[in-house]
Amino acid sequence: MAETQKSRVLTLRICTPDGVTDTLECDSVCFSIPDGVNGTGGGRIGIRPGHIASLIAVAPGRLEAFLGGALQLGRETGSGFASVEGNVVTLLLG
User: Which has more confidence, 8 or 25?
Assistant: First the structure.
């Protein structure tokens, strides 16, 4: 079965205590993750369409979202969690 164009797109939702601050379509999202020992130095993770369902800790650092190789969103974030379900990535940031 041929993969459709829509299935190669992620929906990124950024939520803060004030509500949903951003929603956009992209084809990849990258953000910082903690190391699990002291909360620093963990590196970065990239999410693309078809990623396994996950709940991921987010460390302070740079959030980037790309579409067709072009940067759609780039900004610094604090800590929180990312939920990946289907082709929806939800960042819950404090």
Answer: 25
